[in-house]
Amino acid sequence: MPQPTQKAFTTGSEFPPLDQGVLRLYSMRMCPYAQRTRILLRHKNIEHETVNINLKEKPEWYLEKITPLGKVPAIQKDDLIVYDSSIVNDYIDATYPGEKLTPQDPLQLAKDRMFLEQMTQVVGPFYKIFLSGGQSMEAAPMVLSGLDVAEKELKTRNTPFFCGTKMGMLDVLLFPHLERASLLGKFSPVLALNQDRFPHFLAWIETMMNVPAVRETATPAEVLLKYIQMIKEKNVNYDEGLEE
Protein backbone atom coordinates (compact mmCIF):
# COMPACT_ATOMS: atom_id res chain seq x y z
CA MET A 1 0.00 0.00 0.00
CA PRO A 2 1.30 3.54 -0.65
CA GLN A 3 2.79 5.08 2.46
CA PRO A 4 2.43 8.72 3.49
CA THR A 5 5.64 10.69 3.85
CA GLN A 6 7.89 9.67 6.73
CA LYS A 7 8.24 13.35 7.58
CA ALA A 8 6.46 14.40 10.76
CA PHE A 9 3.13 16.18 10.50
CA THR A 10 3.19 19.42 12.46
CA THR A 11 1.00 22.32 13.57
CA GLY A 12 -1.00 23.73 10.68
CA SER A 13 -0.81 20.56 8.60
CA GLU A 14 -3.91 19.01 7.10
CA PHE A 15 -5.23 15.62 8.18
CA PRO A 16 -3.93 12.99 5.72
CA PRO A 17 -6.97 11.21 4.24
CA LEU A 18 -7.41 7.65 5.48
CA ASP A 19 -8.68 5.03 3.04
CA GLN A 20 -11.49 2.80 4.24
CA GLY A 21 -10.34 -0.38 5.93
CA VAL A 22 -6.68 0.73 6.22
CA LEU A 23 -4.96 0.41 9.58
CA ARG A 24 -2.92 3.51 10.39
CA LEU A 25 -0.23 3.84 13.05
CA TYR A 26 0.51 7.29 14.44
CA SER A 27 4.13 7.25 15.48
CA MET A 28 7.34 9.20 15.97
CA ARG A 29 10.52 7.72 14.56
CA MET A 30 12.63 8.06 17.73
CA CYS A 31 9.89 7.30 20.27
CA PRO A 32 10.43 4.08 22.27
CA TYR A 33 6.73 3.82 23.10
CA ALA A 34 5.77 3.90 19.43
CA GLN A 35 8.56 1.43 18.72
CA ARG A 36 6.70 -1.08 20.88
CA THR A 37 3.84 -1.03 18.41
CA ARG A 38 6.07 -0.93 15.33
CA ILE A 39 7.74 -4.14 16.52
CA LEU A 40 4.41 -5.87 17.12
CA LEU A 41 2.89 -4.85 13.78
CA ARG A 42 5.96 -6.02 11.91
CA HIS A 43 6.24 -9.26 13.87
CA LYS A 44 2.63 -10.18 13.19
CA ASN A 45 2.93 -9.06 9.54
CA ILE A 46 -0.04 -6.71 9.87
CA GLU A 47 -0.43 -4.46 6.86
CA HIS A 48 -0.60 -0.81 7.89
CA GLU A 49 0.52 2.70 7.04
CA THR A 50 2.43 5.07 9.30
CA VAL A 51 1.91 8.76 9.96
CA ASN A 52 4.63 10.42 12.04
CA ILE A 53 3.81 13.24 14.44
CA ASN A 54 5.89 16.22 15.57
CA LEU A 55 5.46 15.90 19.33
CA LYS A 56 6.56 19.47 20.09
CA GLU A 57 4.36 21.14 17.49
CA LYS A 58 1.47 18.70 17.21
CA PRO A 59 -1.08 19.01 14.42
CA GLU A 60 -4.38 20.41 15.67
CA TRP A 61 -6.22 17.49 14.07
CA TYR A 62 -4.17 14.99 16.06
CA LEU A 63 -5.40 16.40 19.36
CA GLU A 64 -8.94 16.89 18.12
CA LYS A 65 -9.50 13.70 16.11
CA ILE A 66 -7.09 11.07 17.45
CA THR A 67 -6.06 11.50 21.09
CA PRO A 68 -6.50 14.35 23.59
CA LEU A 69 -3.28 13.17 25.24
CA GLY A 70 -1.29 14.11 22.15
CA LYS A 71 1.06 11.14 22.59
CA VAL A 72 2.14 8.30 20.32
CA PRO A 73 1.46 5.59 19.48
CA ALA A 74 -2.16 5.54 18.43
CA ILE A 75 -3.88 3.41 15.81
CA GLN A 76 -6.87 4.19 13.64
CA LYS A 77 -9.00 2.09 11.35
CA ASP A 78 -12.10 3.82 10.00
CA ASP A 79 -13.84 5.19 13.13
CA LEU A 80 -11.91 2.99 15.56
CA ILE A 81 -9.12 4.70 17.51
CA VAL A 82 -6.95 3.20 20.27
CA TYR A 83 -4.06 4.95 22.00
CA ASP A 84 -1.35 4.34 24.66
CA SER A 85 1.35 1.83 23.76
CA SER A 86 0.54 -1.06 26.09
CA ILE A 87 -3.20 -0.70 25.41
CA VAL A 88 -2.60 -0.52 21.65
CA ASN A 89 -0.39 -3.61 21.74
CA ASP A 90 -2.88 -5.56 23.83
CA TYR A 91 -5.66 -4.64 21.41
CA ILE A 92 -3.65 -5.63 18.34
CA ASP A 93 -2.53 -8.92 19.86
CA ALA A 94 -6.08 -9.81 20.89
CA THR A 95 -7.87 -8.86 17.67
CA TYR A 96 -5.48 -9.71 14.83
CA PRO A 97 -4.69 -13.28 13.73
CA GLY A 98 -1.36 -14.97 14.14
CA GLU A 99 0.86 -15.92 17.05
CA LYS A 100 -0.31 -14.45 20.36
CA LEU A 101 2.46 -12.74 22.31
CA THR A 102 0.39 -12.14 25.45
CA PRO A 103 0.42 -14.99 28.02
CA GLN A 104 -2.83 -16.93 28.13
CA ASP A 105 -2.20 -17.92 31.76
CA PRO A 106 -3.62 -15.10 33.95
CA LEU A 107 -1.00 -15.65 36.65
CA GLN A 108 1.89 -15.43 34.18
CA LEU A 109 0.34 -12.31 32.68
CA ALA A 110 0.10 -10.79 36.15
CA LYS A 111 3.75 -11.67 36.89
CA ASP A 112 4.88 -10.14 33.60
CA ARG A 113 2.93 -6.94 34.17
CA MET A 114 4.19 -6.62 37.74
CA PHE A 115 7.74 -6.93 36.47
CA LEU A 116 7.02 -4.40 33.71
CA GLU A 117 5.75 -1.96 36.33
CA GLN A 118 8.87 -2.56 38.39
CA MET A 119 11.08 -1.75 35.41
CA THR A 120 8.95 1.30 34.58
CA GLN A 121 10.22 2.89 37.79
CA VAL A 122 13.68 2.98 36.20
CA VAL A 123 12.55 4.65 32.97
CA GLY A 124 12.33 8.20 34.38
CA PRO A 125 15.82 8.20 35.95
CA PHE A 126 17.20 6.50 32.84
CA TYR A 127 15.93 9.23 30.52
CA LYS A 128 17.26 11.96 32.80
CA ILE A 129 20.69 10.63 31.90
CA PHE A 130 19.92 9.62 28.32
CA LEU A 131 18.25 12.84 27.19
CA SER A 132 20.80 15.03 28.96
CA GLY A 133 23.60 13.27 27.12
CA GLY A 134 25.15 12.18 30.41
CA GLN A 135 25.11 15.60 32.04
CA SER A 136 22.63 14.58 34.77
CA MET A 137 24.37 11.66 36.43
CA GLU A 138 22.72 11.64 39.85
CA ALA A 139 20.33 8.93 38.65
CA ALA A 140 23.16 6.57 37.61
CA PRO A 141 23.02 4.33 40.72
CA MET A 142 19.25 3.86 40.36
CA VAL A 143 19.59 3.01 36.66
CA LEU A 144 22.33 0.45 37.26
CA SER A 145 20.41 -1.13 40.12
CA GLY A 146 17.36 -1.32 37.83
CA LEU A 147 19.42 -3.14 35.20
CA ASP A 148 20.61 -5.46 37.98
CA VAL A 149 16.95 -6.34 38.52
CA ALA A 150 16.55 -7.16 34.82
CA GLU A 151 19.72 -9.26 34.93
CA LYS A 152 18.47 -11.19 37.96
CA GLU A 153 15.05 -11.78 36.38
CA LEU A 154 16.56 -13.18 33.19
CA LYS A 155 18.87 -15.41 35.21
CA THR A 156 15.93 -16.67 37.29
CA ARG A 157 13.75 -17.36 34.24
CA ASN A 158 16.76 -19.02 32.56
CA THR A 159 15.44 -18.41 29.04
CA PRO A 160 16.80 -16.34 26.13
CA PHE A 161 13.73 -14.08 26.25
CA PHE A 162 11.83 -12.83 29.26
CA CYS A 163 8.89 -14.79 27.86
CA GLY A 164 10.69 -18.06 27.25
CA THR A 165 12.19 -19.49 24.06
CA LYS A 166 10.33 -17.00 21.84
CA MET A 167 9.78 -13.26 22.05
CA GLY A 168 6.63 -12.35 23.98
CA MET A 169 4.76 -9.19 24.85
CA LEU A 170 6.90 -8.44 27.89
CA ASP A 171 10.00 -8.49 25.68
CA VAL A 172 8.32 -6.16 23.18
CA LEU A 173 7.25 -3.69 25.86
CA LEU A 174 10.65 -3.65 27.58
CA PHE A 175 13.04 -3.64 24.66
CA PRO A 176 12.72 -0.10 23.23
CA HIS A 177 13.67 1.38 26.62
CA LEU A 178 16.24 -1.14 27.77
CA GLU A 179 17.99 -1.38 24.39
CA ARG A 180 18.91 2.28 24.73
CA ALA A 181 20.83 1.38 27.89
CA SER A 182 23.58 0.03 25.64
CA LEU A 183 24.27 3.63 24.58
CA LEU A 184 24.80 4.95 28.10
CA GLY A 185 28.49 4.03 28.05
CA LYS A 186 28.98 6.67 25.35
CA PHE A 187 28.16 9.33 27.97
CA SER A 188 30.16 7.99 30.91
CA PRO A 189 32.37 4.95 31.59
CA VAL A 190 30.44 4.56 34.86
CA LEU A 191 27.44 3.51 32.78
CA ALA A 192 29.22 1.15 30.40
CA LEU A 193 27.49 -2.22 30.70
CA ASN A 194 30.00 -4.76 31.91
CA GLN A 195 29.77 -8.32 30.54
CA ASP A 196 30.66 -9.73 33.94
CA ARG A 197 27.86 -7.81 35.66
CA PHE A 198 25.18 -8.09 32.96
CA PRO A 199 25.81 -11.30 30.96
CA HIS A 200 22.15 -12.33 30.69
CA PHE A 201 20.92 -8.82 29.98
CA LEU A 202 23.45 -8.20 27.21
CA ALA A 203 22.69 -11.62 25.72
CA TRP A 204 18.99 -10.70 25.71
CA ILE A 205 19.71 -7.45 23.85
CA GLU A 206 21.64 -9.41 21.21
CA THR A 207 18.95 -12.08 20.97
CA MET A 208 16.23 -9.46 20.55
CA MET A 209 18.21 -7.72 17.80
CA ASN A 210 18.26 -11.01 15.92
CA VAL A 211 14.45 -10.99 15.73
CA PRO A 212 13.65 -9.58 12.25
CA ALA A 213 10.82 -7.35 13.47
CA VAL A 214 13.06 -5.81 16.13
CA ARG A 215 16.02 -5.32 13.81
CA GLU A 216 13.89 -3.81 11.05
CA THR A 217 12.13 -1.29 13.32
CA ALA A 218 15.14 -0.21 15.36
CA THR A 219 16.26 3.40 15.26
CA PRO A 220 19.94 3.59 14.23
CA ALA A 221 22.23 4.54 17.11
CA GLU A 222 23.57 7.54 15.21
CA VAL A 223 20.05 8.93 14.78
CA LEU A 224 19.30 8.46 18.48
CA LEU A 225 22.54 10.16 19.50
CA LYS A 226 21.81 13.04 17.13
CA TYR A 227 18.30 13.27 18.60
CA ILE A 228 19.76 13.54 22.11
CA GLN A 229 22.07 16.31 20.94
CA MET A 230 19.15 18.19 19.40
CA ILE A 231 17.18 17.90 22.64
CA LYS A 232 20.14 19.34 24.57
CA GLU A 233 20.31 22.21 22.08
CA LYS A 234 16.49 22.63 22.24
CA ASN A 235 16.29 22.42 18.46
CA VAL A 236 14.75 19.06 17.59
CA ASN A 237 14.40 18.07 13.94
CA TYR A 238 11.89 15.19 13.86
CA ASP A 239 12.92 14.44 10.28
CA GLU A 240 16.58 13.88 11.13
CA GLY A 241 18.14 11.25 8.89
CA LEU A 242 15.44 11.24 6.25
CA GLU A 243 16.57 11.59 2.65
CA GLU A 244 13.22 12.60 1.15
Structure characteristics:
244 residues; alpha+beta; Glutaredoxin; Glutathione S-transferase Yfyf (Class Pi), Chain A, domain 2; 9 helices
The H-and-E topology, N to C, reads as: EHEHEEHHHHHHH
Total strands = 4
- Which class of the largest domain in CATH terms? Mainly Alpha
The averaged pLDDT comes out at 92
User: Structural class of the helix and strand makeup?
Assistant: alpha+beta
Helix content: 40-55%
- Which word captures the global form? globular
Global Rg = 18 Å
Low-confidence sequence ranges: none
DSSP strand (E) fraction?
5-15%
Distance between the termini: 18 Å
Largest sheet: 4 strands, mixed
Short note summarizing the structure:
This protein is of the alpha+beta class and 244 residues long. It is 46% helix and 7% strand. Strand 1, helix 1 and strand 2 form a beta-alpha-beta unit.
Protein architecture, described:
The chain has 244 residues and is of the alpha+beta class. The chain is built from nine helices and four strands; from the N terminus they run E-H-E-H-E-E-H-H-H-H-H-H-H. The chain has a four-stranded mixed beta sheet with strand order 2-1-3-4, with helices on one face. A hairpin with a 2-residue loop joins strand 3 and strand 4. The model has no long low-confidence stretch (mean pLDDT 92).
